[in-house]
Amino acid sequence: MTSQPIKEDPVKRFRKLLGSLSPLTRLPQKAAGASSSSSKKPAANPPSSLPKQSQTKKDATAQPKTTTAKPSAVPASSPDPDPEPVSKKRSYAWAPAFWTTASILSLTVNIILIIILLVLLTNVSRLQVDVDKIMGVTQDLISLPGGLYENFEKMDRASIQTNVKVETSIPVKFDLTLNQQTDVVLSQDVTINNALVTVNTGGLNITRANTTIVLPAGTSLPVFLNLVVPVDTQVPVVLDVPVNIPLSETELNEPFVGLQEVIKPLYCFLKPDALNLDDQPICP
Fold first, then answer.
1. Are 236 and 166 found together in one domain?
2. Distance of alpha carbon 130 from the chain centroid
3. Is the dihedral of CA 63, 57, 26, 50 positive or negative?
4. Is the N end or the C end of the chain the one with fewer CB atoms within 10 Å?
5. Domain assignment present for 74
């Protein structure tokens, strides 16, 4: 039932105004039951002392009297005489559902956060984590960007210095020309058949006689060599090669510089007066 006053119909108001002009309306009214029964009976003539009114006035006053005499069943809740527009009701229809959903979500998030907090507190007390250790970890995290930047800079300036051991075989193929005199030493006894031998001794002279000669091992013979020797072989090579390769002159220079530029903003935020390996300011 709304608290707003019910607007009266202008026609009813006009009829009440006409009815109030009649003296009959000022008489005391009977009860609701009596008025309903009396309304069926014809109205008695008013006393002679009252002024006579025209028939039109009686007819005008009769209708409001009849309406007031009959009691009408009052509904438990009268309809709102001025209902709100449908568009306005629809605009506020989503508000309860929205606040209900928001409240459920907020309650769910709070419960999850409380559970996480309880789990963390349980683990911290179980592991007996010291505050000093936590602060040490925090300091390590703060110094992490500086260490990364410094190491990236060192890697960019580093060089590869080592000895490379080479073990391989080199193919050799060429013609060797020999044209010289040399001495040949016999490695074993050599037998020469049908050799012409000349022997001059005090009692014996032999000139160009056929004979068989045996040259013992170790005999040195002068020989003149004049020939071409073909050479086709594999020569084994074993050696150590020193190597010195600066990384700044290789393709690794670009990624190292890129890593320095990535970590530089965070490093400058944590330490604005940071210096590089040459004691030059890093931050602009």
1. yes
2. 32
3. negative
4. C
5. no
